[in-house]
Design goal:
0% strand, mainly alpha, 189 residues
Length: 189
């Protein structure tokens, strides 16, 4: 159980597309105006958890065949996100999607880091450790709560550091783009 908790925390708290986009959303709009986007990401996280659990159970024999295409699609998607962040100028004019539940949900569902996180979580930890359906559910819920907490920490950071991040927007965009690029490259590491 300790290894599961460490895996969930470390993977959830490290920078990834959802964490960085939540930070940027609250930097631009704050919690109140970015709440739909944040709720979309959090809902997408739960959706991915449930879908990954079902997929690993149903398709465990086929994961090796779909893993490589998923990695390449995720890589291309993350490159696109990195480019969009790098080339954005003023958050308020280019980031209206940060107010939308749908945008947050889709971003999370297409987030390769989260998808691989859940496949690894369910396949390597939950299914092997859990002794019954109740424990599987408990492990999944605990993992989701830790993931949500980590996502909200990043959102809180964007809200608290709003003025500083806005003053250094170009540097912030470059760092965010590079972190997303690193996320893309780390799919193959």
């Amino acid at each position: 159980m300790l290894s599961l908790l460490i895996y969930v925390f470390v993977t959830s708290i490290t920078p990834g597309p959802s964490n960085l986009f939540m930070t940027n959303a609250t930097r631009i709009y704050g919690f109140r105006d970015g709440k739909n986007f944040i709720f979309g990401i959090l809902s997408g996280f739960v959706f991915l958890g449930l879908i990954s659990y079902i997929a690993v159970l149903l398709f465990s024999n086929y994961i090796q065949y779909i893993e490589t295409p998923l990695k390449y699609l995720g890589f291309i998607y993350l490159l696109y996100l990195s480019y969009k962040i790098f080339t954005s100028t003023n958050g308020k004019t280019t980031s209206k999607a940060y107010k939308s539940f749908k945008s947050g949900f889709i971003l999370q569902v297409l987030n390769m880091k989260s998808l691989l996180f859940f496949i690894t979580l369910v396949g390597a930890f939950i299914i092997l450790m859990a002794t019954g359906s109740t424990w599987v559910l408990i492990d999944l819920v605990v993992s989701l709560l830790i993931g949500w907490a980590c996502l909200l920490i990043w959102a809180f950071a964007g809200s608290v550091l709003n003025e500083w991040l806005t003053r250094h927007q170009t540097a912030f965009n470059i760092v965010m783009a590079l972190l997303i690029l690193y996320s893309a490259i780390s799919i193959f590491i």
